[in-house]
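Team,

Forwarding the record for the chain on the shared tracking sheet. I've put the sequence and predicted structure together so nobody has to dig through attachments.
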Amino acid sequence: MYSTLSTFAIGILVAFNWSKTSSEEVPVINSGKKFSWFNYKAKYAFLVRSKALLASARALYPKQPFRIMTDVGIVLLMPPEFSDELGCHPDLDFNRPIYEDFHLGIPGFDVMNTSTQHLLLSVIKKQLTKSLDWQEIAVKDCFLDIVARLSSRVFLGKELRRDEDWLRITKEYTVDLFMAAVQLRICPRFARKVVHWFLPSCRRLRARFVEAQRVITTMIEERRRTKEAHCAAGRPVPLYNDATEWIEHEAEIKGMAYNETQAQLGLSMAAIHTSSDLLTQVMLDLARHPEIIHPLRKEIVQSLRDGEWKKTSLSNMKLLDSVVKESQRMKPGQITSMLRWVKRDVTLSNGFHLKEGTRIRVDSCRMWDPEVHEDPDRWD
């Protein structure tokens, strides 16, 4: 009887929620008291237990939209069935919430500069896509160092790939940026342009940027002197096949002014911690499942049997691709995706209305859905 009543109650909740035809009518699952101080408690609760909050909300509203108070304000969470429709909708903007969430216009957050991000996007599309003794190590720190060096070699060439100051800055700046951004979001919006001058995390972020500017400026000036010397001597000018040159070339084509430090920190921020986190998780999963290591090694050896990399080498590593994707499924970088800002009122295919100014995300719950994945909590 109790199970029947529970099922009936959940059915009423689901029907009630989809009877709401507008994003403004959908309930907020963790709203604070009506006159609470800037919803501080609700925002803090989201930061420390967001996964549990989302799980309880999914239980109440399965495959339904719901709103949640986050550190950036109220966000409408849409079920994954709408990902295709929302992902390509022209009236849903990705950039605006990023700029707001990372405080564009406040000193220290300069890496989020709009023109720099557009320049980097163009460069990425055109250029970037082309001992045996037992030791115990902190595996994530080790992989962070490896990825930082590899990224620096691609982005800045040989000069800074082993520069300890630059490698430290690239690793620490991203951490400082996210910490400062989160702490500043807790403050009411009207106070942020004053508070940031006194917040230790923001002061540390500005200092890190100045330090990065010193390193990058020194390297670029040295390159320019080398080019000028070769040109004056009638010798071929050195060609640097790295992101520094690609960005400069693309900026010349577009007639754009840009800040070299913002561009390099922007690339590092996007590449280093995301890649090292994924690499760490894959290696930990392989350590838990050593039976897959031999088949992986065999596939890699066969793909590189002639001793060199080709365009088809990675595409032939099907098992490796599956291993990486399974680790991403089990531990994604985020538990929601597709952040968007509604630029103007939108009506979805099922008649649901998105109000202008609404922040939306899509739930990633399908990655652990037993209807999609057999035994979804098991790495397989």
